[in-house]
From TrEMBL:
Catalyzes the hydrolysis of the gamma-glutamyl amide bond of hercynyl-gamma-L-glutamyl-L-cysteine sulfoxide to produce hercynylcysteine sulfoxide, a step in the biosynthesis pathway of ergothioneine. Residues 2-251 form the Glutamine amidotransferase type-2 domain. It catalyses: gamma-L-glutamyl-hercynylcysteine S-oxide + H2O = S-(hercyn-2-yl)-L-cysteine S-oxide + L-glutamate. Its EC number is 3.5.1.118. It comes from the Bacteria. InterPro entries: EgtC, EgtC-like, EgtC_Actinobacteria, Gamma-glu_amide_hydrolase, GATase_2_dom, Ntn_hydrolases_N. This is Gamma-glutamyl-hercynylcysteine sulfoxide hydrolase. SUPFAM superfamilies: N-terminal nucleophile aminohydrolases (Ntn hydrolases).
Length: 251
């Protein structure tokens, strides 16, 4: 459905993670190696990154394929950051939302992406809409399933609820409401990365320079990439990665 990537570590160009590697997200837009659903991720893309001293990330999003945007190639070459989240999109269903439906979604210090699909959306998740105030639903950037999942998450994050609990509860609620949903969620605040595996692939790589990457699939052939089991919650910073099962209720 999509491919996404988050990185935290020493400042480096956006392109060093998103464009330059041999199997980068840029290439995954047309030739993913491990994508289980869909074939080409050409329905939009986006990248969000953090500038020194500013907790709110900047974003660059477009409706077309990443490979067709020369402006992004320039941006990725010259902009340096210590944390980013990027995604290429294979739309679940056609929509008129344009770049508003392209991840990353943002709120305050947070960046978010969803790799997957919610069967029967929006009817299947109508019971969950009551968890979000009406004014927040009306402010949703797009009408797609990913934007709705982000509305559920962002509402709880703004209230200061723990990231681990929020992600675990959201995945369980969406999976209960829409059986068969694929719910690989990816979230960062610029210091930590949080992610879930629920129906699709996820890998992580920690490097000797204090750099951690979490991605739908490896962006190069480094043998130290580690696959995350399905139904798992991942929490990572620059040096450490913690995995917890999502099959049991979160404690």
């Amino acid at each position: 459905m999509c491919r996404h990537l988050a990185v935290v570590g020493p400042p480096a160009s956006i392109g060093s993670a998103v464009v330059d590697p041999s199997h980068s997200l840029f290439r995954q837009a047309w030739q993913p190696r491990r994508q289980q659903h869909g074939t080409v991720n050409a329905d939009g893309f986006g990248v969000g990154w953090y500038a020194p001293g500013d907790p709110r990330p900047a974003r660059y999003r477009r409706t077309g394929p990443m490979w067709a945007d020369p402006s992004f190639a320039d941006l990725a070459r010259v902009v340096h950051t210590g944390a980013l989240l990027a995604a290429v999109r294979d739309a679940t269903v056609p929509s008129a939302d344009g770049e508003a439906a392209a991840a990353p979604f943002a709120d305050g210090p947070w960046l978010f992406s969803h790799n997957g699909a919610v069967p029967g959306y929006p009817e299947s998740v109508l019971p969950l809409a009551s968890q979000v105030p009406a004014e927040e639903l009306l402010r949703m950037e797009a009408r797609c399933d990913a934007a709705f999942l982000w509305a559920l998450l962002a509402h709880r994050l703004r209230r200061g609820e723990p990231v681990e609990q929020t992600l675990a509860d959201t995945v369980k609620a969406a999976a209960d409401a829409a059986p068969g949903a694929r719910l690989n969620l990816l979230l960062t605040d610029g210091a930590r990365i949080a992610a879930t595996t629920w129906g699709d692939t996820l890998w992580y790589l920690t490097g000797p320079a204090g750099r951690t990457a979490v991605a739908s699939e490896p962006y190069d052939d480094d043998p130290h990439w580690t696959e995350v089991p399905d139904h798992t919650l991942l929490i990572a910073d620059r040096t450490d990665v913690t995995l917890s099962p999502l099959k049991e209720p979160w404690q």
